[in-house]
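ZP: hey, is the D-xylitol-5-phosphate complex queued? I don't see it on the tracker
AM: it wasn't, my bad. submitting now with these inputs:
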Amino acid sequence: MAWIAPSFLAADIWRVAEQISGLEQAGCRYLHLDIMDGAYVPNISFGADFVKSLRPHTKMVFDAHLMVEEPGRFVEDFAQAGVESLTVHVEACRHVHRTLQQIKDLGMKAGIALNPATPICAVEEVLPMVDLVLVMSVNPGFCGQKFIAGALGKLAKLAEIRSRQGYPFWLQIDGGINLDNAAAAVAAGADLLVAGSAVLGAADWLAAYKALAAKAL
Ligand code: DX5
Ligand code: ZN
């Protein structure tokens, strides 16, 4: 069983209030916030002040995914913005252990993300301390890209390590998730499925959310 974390990046900016409260009323508990700096990834999205302005309007857990160079520079800003879970890319941190510790010290859940080309061994040493491991199933930067199926094998390996070592982290998959691959991602061990274009990017986004949530049961 897994939860859906719709990505705000795919929201219709003209109907944001309707979309956020509609998701919440439908039982959605997680909102995925994609933060992009135009340097680590070839796209710019929004920052901590923007997230802070959303905070009073929903009780959904803010699951922020930092696709920025040296994310340690922004950890405090996102804590102050009311983010509960902060995920950083292992490839973007010079001192990843320090950054994860900083996130935890500020009372947030700490997540580590791996790009499609990054092997599990790159995060092995921090697996005992993280609350979440995010497996990218597209290259980070944009909504609407094609799912990279190799991510399922990586998820399954992480799930196996988790159960063997008794680690408590959640597994998240992000990129190209839709009705055709959601069940396979859950079977491979995912607890949280991020969906951008397949939920808030869909014309009937509420029905799309419900259909995807049903696949994740
Ligand atoms: C990609 C982002 C994703 C994105 C997912 O860089 O991390 O969270 O919003 O969008 P879809 O589901 O359309 O691939
Ligand atoms: Zn994301």
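AM: back. The chain is about 30% helix and 20% strand.
ZP: great, adding it to the tracker
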